[in-house]
Specification:
Elements lengths: L1 H24 L6 E5 L2 E5 L25 E4 L5 E5 L4 E5 L20 E6 L2 E6 L4 E7 L5 E7 L6 E9 L6 E7 L4 E6 L5 E3 L1
Antiparallel strand pairs: 1-2, 2-3, 3-4, 4-5, 6-7, 7-8, 8-9, 10-11, 11-12, 12-13
């Protein structure tokens, strides 16, 4: 048992050091990291920053500020969302912006971006009670799947619970700020079904 515990502590230490190195390279002192079975969504503390208005196919202009979100997706790519500017970008595993992945005109009110699968993400806006589901192709392009209005305004988190018995859908738990939660099966079209 001691070897097992030591191994977990060592792995956690390496993970922390790696994450700290990534974050310190971005001039960020601290960040909270919420780990899901498919990746990590990093919410960053407030620091001064003015993201650029256009993105080119060079190094990613990733200088996070409060409310910005980064989420690992398929094939080592990462979605970076600059909340205050309503912009997003997808970077490749080396941290370079994927050509033409810079997107202006995103809502500046997304509270949560979560990977339902490596190739499917949900964007949730608490104030508007709105969610958008997108598929992500192998080039990092986002494609509309489904849009929802009338969702609760107090969703705290999404978490993966596995797949349905026949494997046709991913099971997602949606938990509110009050701790109440519900299970939903999400199909390949991004449609949530009661589970």
């Amino acid at each position: 048992m001691k070897k097992f515990t030591t191994g977990i502590a060592l792995a956690a230490s390496i993970l922390s050091a790696t994450l700290a190195g990534i974050i310190s390279n971005q001039s960020v002192a601290q960040a909270e990291c919420y780990w899901y079975s498919l990746g990590c969504s990093i919410r960053v503390p407030k620091i001064p920053h003015n993201p650029p208005t256009q993105f080119q196919g060079g190094p990613a202009p990733f200088s996070p500020q409060e409310g910005d979100i980064s989420l690992p997706i398929r094939d080592g790519m990462i979605i970076h969302y600059f909340r205050n500017k309503g912009q997003g970008i997808v970077t490749n595993p080396r941290g370079y912006a994927i050509q033409n992945s810079g997107v202006n005109g995103w809502r500046s009110t997304w509270n949560i971006i979560f990977a339902i699968r490596p190739d499917m993400v949900i964007f949730y806006d608490a104030a508007g009670g709105h969610s958008d589901i997108y598929s992500v192709d192998g080039r990092g392009a986002l494609h509309d799947l489904y849009h929802y209005d009338g969702w609760k305004h107090d969703i705290a988190r999404f978490s993966l619970e596995g797949t349905t018995a026949n494997g046709s859908a991913v099971v997602v738990r949606i938990t509110g700020n009050d701790g109440h939660s519900g299970l939903y099966a999400v199909d390949n079209k991004g449609i949530f079904h009661d589970y």
